[in-house]
């Protein structure tokens, strides 16, 4: 992410502070109003998809452009190039010189940023509604012809390298996340980090970045999303005027090697100068469109959402074995992972917590969750999802994420999908996924004087 983090490290920060999907338990009992979400879809002649969701509660819009390119699309030796190009997208285009983008957005009362994940790269600008044409012009110009001045390339590459040092090399949890990808995947490009390996960044060139941009940044590889105080016909006309003459790509092949079935536990131990150990267990699961997706989302909440969740109540509150626990169902364009983690309390170690986490997963696979647990998980997830749909920016994020992972309508079908999940489905999914032969284990151990070094 420009100015901050790559998207994946942002998700990691949320995960390890226990805030991912966090909704207070008492919020589930409050009535949740379902917002009326009206989405208009159109596809231009050059292949650009446009989604418009009119919301007239305030004279504001969110204008977002989502590209079907992420770290999964990178070649060996070019890890981190997707995220680097995201940074370079702010360094000048034919109509708007370096710095002009930010200047115009700020002068017109707006804000903007971008983020990169394994599967996609997204750019957004939030502005007053009467600045729709400005937003479209800014985004179309850099889709049409990014300049990437040579002098700016080196400075942005340095920023990306520093981000890697800050969020990965100097952050033990960031390093655990990186090791998880390298351990759980042996063939699929999910195995390398979004921010890139430092050796690859050291060898990165402007020519490589420009070639990558020219290969992936085309209208038929993108989705434009406009949410807020706008009339659909006006929005479509504005987008067509700005983007309609940009030629489509000659064709982009996004096929990647399929990850083979894991047939035995994999284990990595990471030694760092930390106060406390930690452990992660990760299990291969399906992609976002897989039939198990909603059941795994319920399992995530049963295990770790709120103080009354199974892991928190047992390991943190009752037995005081852990100071931090969590779970996350991560589904992407391709098959993802279900992760559980724990940070032990003083006097306890990672091996003990590893056994406890596996025991909790075994119980989930052995016996159905209670109806009370199912209902609570549904209420929490529904509340978090619907609150997000109330905001222009967040609605755009929901629609864009779903579009990039398969179908934009998934953003609106999430709650009905959760409602259809049964306790037996959660048990069956857990039984299939949470097997030791399907797991990767990452253990963080405190450095001792004997090991030394980094």
List keywords for this structure.
454 residues; 42% helix; Cytochrome Bc1 Complex, Chain A, domain 1; 16 helices; disordered C terminus; six-stranded mixed beta sheet
How is the main sheet built? Answer: 6 strands, mixed
Give the name of the CATH superfamily of the largest domain: Metalloenzyme, LuxS/M16 peptidase-like
Low-confidence spans: 3-34, 450-454
Helix segment tally: 16
**What distance lies between the first and last C-alpha atoms, to the nearest angstrom?**
27 Å
User: In CATH, what is the class of the largest domain?
Assistant: Alpha Beta
Helix and strand content put the structural class at: alpha+beta
Instruction: Give the rounded overall mean pLDDT.
Output: 91
How many distinct beta strands? 11
Fold and architecture overview:
The longest helix has 20 residues, at 150-169. This protein has two domains: 7-243, Metalloenzyme, LuxS/M16 peptidase-like (Cytochrome Bc1 Complex, Chain A, domain 1, 2-Layer Sandwich), CATH 3.30.830.10; 266-446, Metalloenzyme, LuxS/M16 peptidase-like (Cytochrome Bc1 Complex, Chain A, domain 1), CATH 3.30.830. The radius of gyration is 22 Å and the shape is globular. Strand 1 and strand 2 form a beta hairpin. With 454 residues, the protein is of the alpha+beta class. It has helices at 7-16, 81-88, 100-107, 132-144, 150-169, 172-184, 198-202, 206-216, 232-243, 293-304, 310-318, 350-366, 371-389, 392-405, 410-419, 423-433; strands at 40-43, 49-54, 60-67, 111-116, 121-128, 222-228, 266-272, 278-284, 322-330, 337-344, 439-446. The chain has 16 helices and eleven strands. The strands form two sheets. Strands 1-2-6-3-5-4 form a six-stranded mixed sheet, with helices on both faces.
